[in-house]
Specification:
The protein is α+β, with helices and mostly antiparallel strands. It is 35% helix and 15% strand. It has helices at residues 22-29, 81-92, 102-115, 121-128, 138-150; strands at 2-7, 10-15, 48-51, 54-57, 70-72. Strands 2-1-5-3-4 form a 5-stranded mixed beta sheet, with helices on both faces. The chain is globular and about 45 Å long. Bound molecules: FE2/S2 (inorganic) cluster (2 copies). Residues 37-40, 42-47, 57, 59 line the site of one FE2/S2 (inorganic) cluster.
Length: 156
């Protein structure tokens, strides 16, 4: 059935079953392949996007549950203040190793910083604990989030 989604500032109508996970629509229907498939069970965080600013696992989010909410993916996160700071800090700290988990890591970190510009270590651990990195980049991720926070984030 036709479903209209607001993705990265554009309305996009797709013809899929309502229970199709958002991740499938992003990658296979719309070609937004920056968002990754890892586990398909909300266990790894690779598929994280923002829905109305909240970090959300797109692999378990049926498209018919989203309604008018605004979806932001890794392709557009750099247009937000928090996303731009996070991406710059990621580069400054050379966080990425294989890269597979990193879209999800950046989306979770950007959501954290947009809502909490000065996160404590505990806040960072809580926000990032669901994002798994098999390459073990956790130390650099934490350092990059702190660097981004120090550089000052203005709202979303
Ligand atoms: S693919 Fe969604 S949490 Fe792993
Ligand atoms: S950078 Fe390789 S899984 Fe995280």
């Amino acid at each position: 059935m036709p479903i209209t989604l607001k993705i990265n500032g554009r309305s996009q109508t797709v013809d899929v079953d309502g229970d199709t996970p958002l991740l499938w629509v992003l990658r296979d229907v719309l070609g937004l392949t920056g968002t990754k498939f890892g586990c398909g069970m909300a266990l790894c965080g690779a598929c994280t996007v923002h829905i109305d600013g909240a970090a959300t696992r797109s692999c378990i989010t049926p498209v018919d549950s989203i309604g008018d909410a605004k979806i932001t993916t890794i392709e557009a996160i750099g247009a937000t203040s928090a996303g731009a700071k996070i991406q710059k800090a990621w580069l400054d700290h050379e966080v990425v190793q294989c890269g597979y988990c990193q879209s999800g890591q950046i989306m979770s970190a950007a959501a954290l910083l947009a809502g909490n510009p000065h996160p404590s270590d505990r806040d960072i651990d809580d926000a990032m604990s669901g994002n798994i990195c098999r390459c073990g980049t956790y130390v650099r991720i934490r350092a990059a989030i702190k660097l981004a926070a120090q550089s000052g984030v203005k709202g979303g």
